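Hi all, long-time lurker, first post. I run a small reading group and we've been trying to get comfortable going from sequence to structure in the token notation. Rather than ask abstract questions, I figured I'd post a concrete chain and ask someone more experienced to write out its structure so we can walk through it together at our next meeting. Sequence below, copied exactly:
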Amino acid sequence: MTLLIVDDEPAILETVEHRFRREGYTTFTADSAEEAMRLFRRVKPDLILLDIMLPQRSGWDFCRTVRKDSSVPIIMVTARADEADRIKGLELGADDYVVKPFNLGELSARVKAVLRRATGEPTHEVVERGNLRIDPKSHSVTLDGEAIELSPKEFALLYFLARNPDHVFARDTLLDRVWGRDAFVSSRTVDVHIRWLRKRIEPDADHPVRIITVRGIGYKFVG
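-- Answer (accepted) --
Happy to help. Here is the structure in token form:
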């Protein structure tokens, strides 16, 4: 597995790279978003460890650019610990969010967990629910024939719910089935992704008719 480690602090780059090389990963490092983008296009990493506070161009911008045409796993590793920053990272398509200072053992565990989920055996069954069509093979969603752009986790959550119409799922169950049992995220993550899905596929996100909240339990997709 190949990792791209992006951080503008030389000590962190050296420490993290040393740890993952010892564990058998091939590693590349970058101290700016520009260098990271050049390496990303050249080496096609299996996972990116991404700092947010980079010179000139932020990790937010880098993540947004990568997500336009790639679902490569991204773990944000940053000193920004506010809940709003965590939510923003997940909404931009990050698979996990680690706050500095971090434990190298925990970071390694998170990398392994994200890679396990990313390399799991995919299903290729197309799901059609009314005017909504979800194709996992091409990772595409259309509504009335118009393409809908979703992050990898938004797609995975929508696909899971749509494959199980009228079944109510608790938040913890959705975390388990979409993010994985060893994911280091909270149930709040599910709420954030549901909110963004509603903005994309509901006629009125404030009065949803497809993804319904079942009070005290969780969510269901109305087929």
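A couple of things your group might point at:
The chain has two domains: 2-118, 127-221.
Residues 104-118 form the longest helix (15 residues).
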